[in-house]
């Protein structure tokens, strides 16, 4: 399961973030304990604890003493905002720079995204050309 190049604790944290983003883990829902995680995935409990501690530091999870770890209120929106920011910075901005170098106009980009050709573009009068 954890066969990526990054450390297992980072893979665990990323898996939990993905579950929150997808809605598989809802806000205020309890997360599997570090012991359960270690047993289920056959990893060292300290590795799972390190992943959880990182998510607590990020404000994604919080601990209820004596009860366990829970998804923090607002965690999904926080993760969505972080992913949106990263998308704009790492994907869209470089693509727009490349489009500019290729002489692709903003109107051509919009047409392509909307799946229409230049003939389908509205004119200033509101009609399609």
Automatic annotation (TrEMBL):
Keywords: DNA-binding, Transcription, Transcription regulation. The keyword Membrane does not apply. Residues 6-74 form the HTH gntR-type domain. This is GntR family transcriptional regulator.
């Amino acid at each position: 399961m954890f066969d990526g190049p990054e450390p297992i604790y980072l893979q665990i944290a990323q898996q939990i973030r993905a579950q929150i983003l997808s809605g598989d883990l809802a806000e205020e829902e309890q997360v599997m304990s570090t012991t359960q995680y270690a047993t289920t995935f056959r990893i060292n409990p300290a590795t799972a604890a390190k992943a959880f501690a990182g998510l607590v530091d990020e404000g994604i999870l919080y601990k209820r003493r004596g009860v366990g770890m829970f998804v923090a209120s607002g965690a999904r929106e926080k993760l969505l905002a972080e992913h949106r920011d990263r998308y704009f910075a790492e994907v869209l901005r470089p693509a727009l720079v490349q489009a500019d170098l290729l002489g692709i106009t903003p109107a051509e980009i919009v047409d392509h995204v909307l799946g229409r050709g230049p003939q389908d573009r509205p004119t200033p009068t509101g009609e399609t050309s």
